[in-house]
Amino acid sequence: MKYKRGSEFTPVENLTSKSPFSIRNIRLFIAFRIFYNARFYYPVFTILFLDFGLTLEQFALLNAIWAATIVLLEVPSGALADIIGRRNLLVFTGVIMVVEIGLLCFIPRGNPTILFTAFLINRILSGTAEAAASGADEAIAYDTLIKEGIASDWPRVLERQMRYQSIAFIAAMSLGAAVYDPSLMQHMVDWLGLRIHMTRDITLRIPLFLTLMMSIGTLVTALRMREIDSVSGEECTKEKGCGKSIIQAFKLTIDAGKWIFHTPFVLVIIVAGLFFDNCIRMIVTLSSQYYRLINLPEASFGIIGSLLAVMGMFIPVLAHKMVKNHSLIFNLSVMVLLTLSGLIGMVLVLPIFGLIPAMLVFSVMYLNQFFQSHYLNRVTSSEQRATVLSFKGLSFNLAYGVIGLLYSFLMAVLRDQAAVTNPILAGVELENFVFVRSLGWFPWYFVITLIAMVLFAWWQLKKSDEYKRMGLIEEV
Questions:
Q1: Residue 160: phi, psi to the nearest 5?
Q2: Residue 150: CB partners within 8 Å, gap ≥ 6?
Q3: pTM attached to this predicted model
Q4: How many Cβ atoms from other residues are within 10 Å of residue 274's Cβ?
Q5: How far apart are CA 415 and CA 153, in angstroms?
Q6: Angle between the 136-148 and 112-133 helix axes, to the nearest 10 degrees?
Q7: Which among 206, 250, 200, 37 has a CA at the least distance from the CA of 129?
């Protein structure tokens, strides 16, 4: 959900000496981003589900449902924000986050039906919160700067917010993986002189309880925010009515969708980004299970996640040089080469060294994010830019949901085959065997969808004047 600004909200020069960080809503915006995004279970995301007792196909299915929830609620949540207010929608997000994390903190293990139902509710609530929070916090912060007459300070706010969020993310990744490791935690409690036997059942929930604390921080932060009317730029009170009609909100999305489908270059850019995103995001989702199979200790998962966050700070510099000096076709070819090399390397499941091909695949995720932003912003007019980017997000989540369903189906087929060819396998050994076999399908999926993407691009651009853009040197 994004928010389009009117001409009256055009950034102006900061003619005052007031710091944006002295403003309450700005500080709360930064805090909200930190509390909402720094989740301690991220480095062990896949194995957390599996260690609770779910199967890999159930895990994939649940994440497909998560993505579908976002797709279904993204636009309605935007319209709802325009009616009830963005601050109220953020409070709603905080409440949902507390419930979704609290549910996993206290759900008992042992009953597969109850367990799957609890995780299903968690995924639906998580997708709902994701759709509700999308852009609302940023809109309040930006409108607050406009109200104060210092909208030109927005880049400073974003820079500090991203820096603090990266630091919090690195801390959450490192600590979340460390507390999940029973042997490491046993050494810790022994050193403290505590007579506690640290089992998997105990460490399984520590990252969740830490995240529950963050969810409470999210809710408290949202409650302290103040609504700013996106039309008048004034602070909203009970006596004032703020927002616009639901019809206007939906019309923006429909108009943006029509423009995308009638602009071949934009449509091809989005499809190309979607092609990379769904495959790589599925691999990222499964990463902790892959790390476990290449003999990396669980305590290292957080360090790896932190290294990926550091990569995310340097790869955009490389991507900037690529769009400045090379054509779009060259940049896409580099992404294809890196992705295919990484996927083939991961199939080998090399102990320790299997991290190298995984890093190649993950690096493409950052390149894709940069290239999508660069090329789409170059050809999209300012009055519909936010809505077009929102439409892109909808399509990406839809594609992620589809590959989640396909992967769930694949795992079910591979498990049935394994039961026939290797009847002695059961439990964790069966899960690992099936997972390794599933990795072999990713390069083929990538190649097939690559061919489909190239044919689609050729079909869309062959009669368009925009075809020449595919070979131009991009300038910044």
A1: -70, -40
A2: 14, 16, 18, 20
A3: 0.72
A4: 21
A5: 55
A6: 20
A7: 37
Query: Which domains, and CATH codes, for the chain?
Result: 1-244 (1.20.1250.20), 245-466 (1.20.1250)
**CA nearest to 30, candidates 227, 217, 180:** 217
* Token pair of 316 as six digits: 């955009």
Query: Residue 231 CB: number of other CB atoms within 10 A?
Result: 13
Q: What is the largest CA-CA distance in the chain?
A: 75
pLDDT, greater one: 416 or 444:
444
Contacts of 60 (CB under 8 A, 6+ apart): 282, 404, 405, 407, 408, 411
Main-chain phi, psi angles of 327, to 5 degrees: -80, 165
Label residue 146 by pLDDT band (50, 70, 90).
Answer: confident
Closest residue by Cα to residue 3 from 188, 334, 249, 221: 249
Single-letter code of the amino acid located at 36: Y
Token pair 């500080």 is found at 27
DSSP letter for 6, please.
Answer: P
| CB atoms inside a 10 Å sphere around CB 353 | 10
Tell me the H-state helices in 355-426.
355-379, 385-421
User: Strand, coil or helix: what is 18?
Assistant: coil
85 φ, ψ to 5°? 105, 145
